[in-house]
């Protein structure tokens, strides 16, 4: 099934259609009450960056993988998070656990591979070995090493939960951290993600891009439907409406609908009667650093993971998810084409602009920055970040 129906009830789809028809007809978009002013140091301040890692990413859940990237028992992935590199391992009972990728002996990196399948992880430095459950299995030449209580020397574990087809992690091994994805998302947003049926998709490709850009610069770029015409003139601009978005805040998070220009073929019809499934993109923005975009025939998942220890550095994780595994050459060619388009838009256009922005905001004399009323999702993000850091443990 290449094109799946938009998995919402008719009332919701009618609401989407009516909002987009009105915006396109009238040259409007959803707007915030006023222009928002921010200090450009939010993109450069090392003290703020340290606070974000300690007070935010050390407590709140973020997506680390799609479940289909760990299909079988003992499959593993190494994932760089803001505070730790973590090894995710599929367990014998079908669940996933996550461990800090550091040998408990002398601190060597335990797992050098990005992915694979292993029952035992052996440290290349001195040969200490750990099971896929994180337990210390053996110590090389143990009689000469000394007495060790192995029960106290397991790999340090981070909280992990699978929900909506993703593996979520809290990036801290502190014993008081608890993970509850449904609570974090809130009932309305959790239901919206559930309707997307992301657990029925498979990960066709996942890649990481390390860039010298603050993670919030990148999050801003993908919350923004205002730059399509100017930044993406050579790729997707001819196919999408610019600066015409329907924004729905949902607690901490939010959902945004934008239109392809193919919507012109149906927008003279009644909103309650029309099928708009193949004419819109529905984007879910998950605070603090993630977006999931539903295209008519696939999903795009983007994470903007702050690099450890620096203010200006991000690992951008990109995934393309499909309804069915690609097994034929025709299917592979289709998704390769989609991936190449995504690369052209994100890597060759967005990243180029945002590398320049990061350089520019380091200038001394630039004054405040401004988000217009039409940049409503960006305003939501920055206002949420300010509330979250001002009110730790409630997170906005």
Question: Can you describe what's shown?
Answer:
- It comes from Rhodococcus wratislaviensis (Tsukamurella wratislaviensis).
- InterPro entries: ARHD_Rieske_2Fe_2S (IPR015881), Rieske_2Fe-2S (IPR017941), Rieske_2Fe-2S_sf (IPR036922), Ring_hydroxy_dOase_asu_C_dom (IPR015879), Rng_hydr_dOase-A (IPR001663).
- The radius of gyration is 22 Å and the shape is globular.
- It contains nine helices and 20 strands.
- The chain has two domains: 10-56 and 186-390, Alpha-Beta Complex (Naphthalene 1,2-dioxygenase Alpha Subunit, Chain A, domain 1), CATH 3.90.380; 62-178, 3-layer Sandwich (Rieske Iron-sulfur Protein), CATH 2.102.10.10.
- A hairpin with a 4-residue loop joins strand 17 (290-294) and strand 18 (299-306).
- With 396 residues, the protein is of the alpha+beta class.
- The longest helix is centred in the C-terminal third of the chain and has 33 residues, at 329-361.
Integer-rounded radius of gyration: 22 Å
Overall number of domains:
2
Give the CATH topology of the largest domain.
Naphthalene 1,2-dioxygenase Alpha Subunit, Chain A, domain 1
What is the CATH architecture assignment of the largest domain? Alpha-Beta Complex
Order of helices and strands: HEHEEEEEEEEHEEEHHEHHEEEEEEHEH
Low-confidence stretches: none
* Ends distance: 39 Å
What's the CATH H-level superfamily name of the largest domain? Naphthalene 1,2-dioxygenase Alpha Subunit, Chain A, domain 1
Write the layout of secondary structure elements.
Layout: H1 10-26, E1 36-38, H2 46-56, E2 62-66, E3 75-80, E4 85-90, E5 96-100, E6 115-117, E7 120-122, E8 129-131, E9 136-138, H3 142-145, E10 157-158, E11 160-163, E12 166-169, H4 181-185, H5 187-195, E13 202-211, H6 215-223, H7 228-231, E14 240-250, E15 253-260, E16 280-286, E17 290-294, E18 299-306, E19 314-322, H8 329-361, E20 369-371, H9 376-390
Antiparallel strand pairs: 1-20, 2-12, 3-4, 3-6, 4-5, 5-10, 7-8, 8-9, 11-12, 13-19, 14-15, 15-16, 16-17, 17-18, 18-19
Protein name: Ring hydroxylating dioxygenase, large subunit of terminal oxygenase
Domain Rieske: 62-169
Keywords: 2Fe-2S, Dioxygenase, Iron, Iron-sulfur, Metal-binding, NAD, Oxidoreductase
